[in-house]
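Supplementary Methods S3. Input chains for the assembly prediction are listed below.
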Amino acid sequence: MAKTHVTMKVNGVEVEGLVEPRTLLVHFIRENLSLTGTHIGCETTHCGACTVDIDGMSVKSCTMFAVQAQGSEIMTIEGVANADGSLSALQEGFRMTHGLQCGFCTPGMILRAQRLLKENPRPSEEEIRMGISGNFCRCTGYQNIVKAIQYAAAKINGDEFKEAAE
Amino acid sequence: MIPGPFSYHRPATLAEAVNLLSTLGDEARPLAGGHSLVPMMKLRLASPEHLVDLHGVAGLKGIQRRGDKIVIGAMTTQHELLASDDIGKSLPILHETALLIADPQVRYRGTIGGNVANGDPGNDMPALMMVLSASYRLEGKSGAREVAANEFYQGAYFTALEPGELLTSISIPLPAAGHGYAYEKLKRKVGDYATAAAAVVLTMAGGKVATCKIGLTNLSETPLLAEDAAKAVIGTSLDPATLKQAAAAAEAIMSPAADARGPVEYRKHIGGIMVTRALQRAAGRAG
Ligand SMILES: Cc1cc2nc3c(=O)[nH]c(=O)nc-3n(C[C@H](O)[C@H](O)[C@H](O)COP(=O)(O)OP(=O)(O)OC[C@H]3O[C@@H](n4cnc5c(N)ncnc54)[C@H](O)[C@@H]3O)c2cc1C
Ligand code: FES
Ligand code: FES
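Predicted structure tokens for the full assembly:
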């Protein structure tokens, strides 16, 4: 099958590559760009481990073809840290509240949570849980992931982070 | 899981898209949000030789008011429906239903046109479109036609769409002011298709049901309008005996498949409960 030339901006950098039309975006990101922070969990659009941010949307990159991302702006976990290399509010939140165990779901969780907080800077616990309902975690039971997102929201908004009593 | 090989086309106009689809024939499929089609292609349940991506086609997106109708472009995503104040105010049942579809990521990509054109009995929008008396605009090489949602579904994955035709927009008459509505869906978890679901739109006058429509999702090969069930509640105040009668009338037309969501009898039973709950919740909301 003839290959197609694609260009897109990933984490602020213009990238290009030759892909078959059937190449899934997640494979392009992991294999052509060697950005392996984006994970493949289920490959069936359920788990959210492959979530990246594309033109302001959280997208499961296993369910889109790389050719469809022509001209897009994409952010993956490798682009999340602050420009000076320090951790973003969400990364810090996951670290401080023990929001990960094995870490497999974490890149997808952080990309999804980042978009959620842009759209809804002060989400309720319920809104956080619904907002990450397309991302599965097999380890944490979600409790500390929710806390990590609350921590980040508080930090971004300049509010005090109070851990809810359990 | 990698789909079979195909050629990718990205037309910029509707005329170009329609032309491609009719020239390429049976081996070509339109690609909308891809959140039904791509999973099927990965499982090799679909292996089209050509995909005609509709994302570049101008004019297929957007929500517009035209007189007493709301017209929604086929490529409008579930996320965009949820973000629309106009939909929230004038078609709140569409907002409620969109929120029960899949998860946030799927809703950013999945389109209303793809949802209603797909023909999967598990899709939630089709039964709702029947309840709202919506019609679909289908455009092909020989021109455009309007088909009522009510007449569109013929079997699982089998619709009134002719090869080479695209569904370009959905036209929904505004429901009466003060109408009550509810979409009740039982699913095993977020992101699951319905074990059973029911859509209700009704109006009340003097404490009695004046008009009512009931739609059923995933309880047959096609979405269903439960007409006898709706008739049974007209003129009543939805007393327990009437609700029982309506649920029984709805169950009588259900023929769900037995699958991981449960055996036939269970799914019908749940279908009756969804009808009852949707009627009660809709009546509580009617002004
Ligand atoms: C994890 C997961 C959970 C889901 N849960 C639900 C759920 O609970 N309820 C629900 O309703 N859906 C659910 N979906 C399906 C989702 O809503 C799909 O997005 C939707 O069914 C199809 O829309 P699409 O835009 O993605 O269409 P596509 O996948 O691109 O297309 C679907 C089919 O319709 C055809 N088509 C698309 N657009 C047109 C058009 N304009 N004219 C003619 N033909 C067209 C395509 O050729 C294809 O055959 C789920 C999907 C996933 C991945
Ligand atoms: S790998 Fe994409 S959703 Fe699981
Ligand atoms: S930390 Fe292991 S899957 Fe979430």
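Chain A touches chain B at residues 1-2, 4, 20-24, 27, 43-46, 48, 51, 57-60, 63-65, 67-68, 112, 116, 130-131, 133-134 (CB under 8 Å). Residues 89-157 of chain A form a domain with the DNA polymerase; domain 1 fold (CATH 1.10.150.120).
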